[in-house]
Amino acid sequence: MAQRGSRTVSLRGWGGVAAMAVACALTAVFALLLPLAQRGGGGGGAGSGPGGVAAGVQARADDCDPDTKGKEPERSVSRSGSADGGAVRAVKDRGYLSVGVDQNSYRWGYRDPNSVDESSELEGFDIDLAHEIAKEILGSPDKVRFKAIPTNQRIPAIQRGEVDMVVRTMTISCERLKDVDYSTAYFQTGQQVLAPKASAITGFDGTLGGKRVCSAAGSTAEAALRLGRTQQKIPADTDISETVPNQLDCLVRLQLGEVDAVVTDGALAASQAAQDPTVELKGEPFTKEYYGVAMKKGADELVRRVNQVLEDYRRSGGWQKSYDHWLEPALGPSQGPPAPKYQ
Please, are residues 221 and 289 in contact by the beta-carbon 8 Å criterion? Predict the structure, then answer.
């Protein structure tokens, strides 16, 4: 896939974030149905970047219910069986793939806020993957229509049939597996704390006592904060009530002094720190999590087809190429994509 060498994106400091904040306000009501003709590089890994961003510590497998996927939520449906019927046939008959994405996450799924062109293309690591899936299923990477959806609307959008899938830094979890199905994991990350460089906060620990911490509603960060307080990993007086529709809104609140810290995926936090040099990651990741492509419950044929695409994407070097283009500047060299796991 072609690199976007002709356009340099500058999103640092208040200017870039303020522009992206405007985009955040539009996300919940603005559906992007724009086939993108130009794509970035094709691949990358979830290696440990600076500060161990993508290599989680204190890792443990979630204890999934028996009717989900055992003790490893990142396990997906077996590769055996049909991968070209049901939902796949419906996509082919329609002629395009409908994908829920983010338009505000720097280097994952975003539009250049410095562009004067309102039709500027979505770009980033997740966008590359969506194009790859469209190419493999429909024969062209451009046969895809994107719909920008906020964090807390990812599952409802799938359940209502508004999109065929969501490719939006969406962590695979046992709780979510009750509502949607996932592909194999395509990225490893972990929850991490983001705070001003001048802050005395040192990580997900006692230094959050009495602090206001922001997370996206419906995110694994929100769940991790609740669990951390229950398990006394953070003080009982840590204020975790501040939740927002999109995780970028937390960064804006942090800059405005409305909150003291943000908890989000380390990979996203690193991208936010790249936008604003006054903030930094605090401490190591305190979970191990995996991103997957989410699809409607029971759409096994589509899940199998996406798993095939991911197998090819890893093997061809496309994943690595995309990582190097979009994520290596913030996360450092990749150790490669997570190995697929099947039931």
Answer: no
